[in-house]
Sequence to fold (516 residues):
Amino acid sequence: MAGSSDNGGRSSEPSKNGKAPPAWRAPFDAVERPVTSASQSWLQSNLFMDGLAIAWRVQRRVNVDLRRGLGICFGVLNMPTRGDVDRLSNQLANVERQLRELRSGLEASEQEQPKPQGLPIGTAAARRRPASRDRR
Amino acid sequence: MAPSLLERQLLRTRNGVRYYAGLSRPPLAQTPRDLVWRRDTARLWRYRSDERRIAPPVLIVHSLISKSYILDLLPNATMIGFLLGEGFDVFMLDWGRPYPADAENTLETYFEGYMPAAVAAACAESGADEVSLIGYCLGGVLALLLAAADPEQPIRNLITLTTPCDFTELGFMSQMFIEGRLNPEDVIDATGLVPARVLDRGFQSLKPTDAIVQQVNVWQNLWNDQWLTGFVAMNKWTRDHVPFAGAAFRQIVETLVRDNTLADGVMPTKGREARLADIRCPYLNVFCRRDEIVPPRSAAPLAGLVGSEDVDELCLESGHVGLVAGRQAGKVSMPKIAEWIASHSERSPAGRSGRRRGGGQTRARREVSGDGSSAGDAAR
Fold:
């Protein structure tokens, strides 16, 4: 899980070279710490969580209605809507899932057959490709 | 030598222009690696090293909801680089970015489908019969489930890093679902995935003032190139989520969060139950005192639930991310974890590891020489 960064902790701590934090930092921390603590407590309160859940559902409902309305307008203009894109995306996903099933079925049947002599595909010795850095 | 006040202001100006113009982009995940195995979006990487001295290899299972480059963030903040330097043969199982085709993936898809194949591929690639399995965060849950559901898996050691067990203790995000304020369907989109921005918003909500504090920290440390590089890299990662497979999310909410089954040591899977008590390999549970995502009270019960006789726990003074990529990771956290794994492994003189072991029941009860459990003992 990712989340709020905790890289290095509070900066009011002395830095690596032993330097004390700047003078302006202390008043900021003096305000920030209780505010953060209070906001985290507020976040955990039932009132906040109930409010957030209601806001979330209202926002979602408004989005759905808005999208439906826009879809009707786009339909009149004979233009594709977000719903069309989602439907297409889901159909492609279904095809992809079927392909995966086929592939795993093929792999399973290949494994059942006797292996030919030689190195299995994928071992370091079989690969022997020139060293290249991974590029993301 | 620390820069003078004038030098500092000049550096601050230069770095400020770069940072606020978005030109400060440190190269991430620089450790060379090779793709060993792939299936769908899952990838198994092996990191290059000429110093593989410890067997069996280490296989790291990353979380499902974030990108794996956090484990190899920067050359001076890399968990993977550290393990390589210690002589481990390191593999990493990266789940990649799920697409709508992955929307129906359940937890079983991962721990019964992909993971056994990845473990087998790691064994085949390294020539070893077993692996030391490390799971980070939700990857730890998957590692536990793999080891529990199939005790015959060739797992020599099991290590979980900041892995939730009691999901009722996860705070704000789990509370939103426990009492039905939100249902999984409320956050799953039309393609069947939980969008990355939903997860991002959830995590940002954990600490509402974080954005302001971060900007103040930037202003304070803008002159410091090293600090800024680390900050930019970490900040990029914290906002760089991936979508979550809807079916797995539904399963997590219903089974792990609402029923909180893992806290009882049980996870119902298709047709049977995975019981943590069935885990017999040596186990190390690592959690962090300052972790706001998986607090210690959520992770700590794991040690008491697994069935292994050799169980250690390590409570570190760190945060959820700082454990693997923070300033102290390479100095405090990782050395202790590496020490535990090394003490539960074997040292080979040089070159490729992978000593053959006989029989299928490779539970790998090693004879610990020296203070093998020092890491765990120190934390207790």
